[in-house]
Every structure is written in C-alpha cells, then in structure tokens.
Design a protein that fits this description.
single chain, 170 residues, 17% strand, elongated
Amino acid sequence: MTAPAIPSAATAARRNRWAVSFADLLMLLLGFFVLLQATGSQRRDAMLAEVSRQFGGRPARTAIELRAAELFAPGEAMLTRQGQIRLRAAVRPYMQDDRMIELRSQGQDRARQRFDDWDLAAARLGAVARALKAQGIGGDRLLIRGLDQADSADGQGQVIRIAPGETVKP
C-alpha cells in the first residue's frame, strides 16, 4: 500500500491562486463603493444609473435639484413667477407617470423676518408640494421625506430635490 502523494509547494500555490484574484476583486469593489459614497448625491445617482445601463438595466429618471433662492422671494416661502415656471418645467416628465414623487430639502437659506432658518426651509418645501398639487399631481403621489439641516457643502443654501419614488401608486 502506498502513501498518498503530498502535493508540492508549486501545486499548492497554483490551487490557491484564485484566492489572490478574489481578494483583488474585493478590494476593487470596496474602493469603488468608497469613491461612490464620497461623491455628492447628484453625481452618485448619475453614476449608478450609468452602471445600471451598462448591465442592461432600465435607464432611471434622475433627481432634479433646484436652488430655493431661484424659486422663491428672498426670505419668503412664496414662489416667484419665474420660480413657478422653472418648477413646472422641472416636473413635466413626472406628470404622465404614476410613480410616487419624493421631495427633499437640503441646506438652509437665511431667513429675514417672519421665519427662522428651519421654518423657512420647511415652508418652502411645503410650498413646492402645494404647487405640484396645483399642477395636477395628486397629493397621494407626493412623499415629503424631510429636511436635512446641514449646510450644503458648496454653500448653495437650500436645495430642493425632486426625485421619482421607489413605489408605484396603488
């Protein structure tokens, strides 16, 4: 009876070579996700949409970000005429869709008299929701997700983000 053959060091190294390639792949994926997280939300959404498209996914509608200072009178929560026109143009693609519409606010503009900064941001987000309802988008399709009080990194002030929601209206 013969003893089982002991694999040589070269044979063992060849068998375990896949582990090095697998570890390289994991490190590349980790680096990709770290870079993805480090980019801003607008660029991240665009990058994820492109990756999805490369793998045969449907092109996703990306979010629209509007500076509140360009939509509202300074220190107020009333849409200007120009702001109404910009908002109407921005949400036109969502009019024929049955998906939910998600509204978010990030950053703050300095309030003047009637509001403090937080109240102004909340009132403006509510004004956008009311304007969308007035344009024919049902209130049951609107999701107001909240106010991010952190100042935006690039000093833009308040930014209102309009994005397609995850769910379909029942």
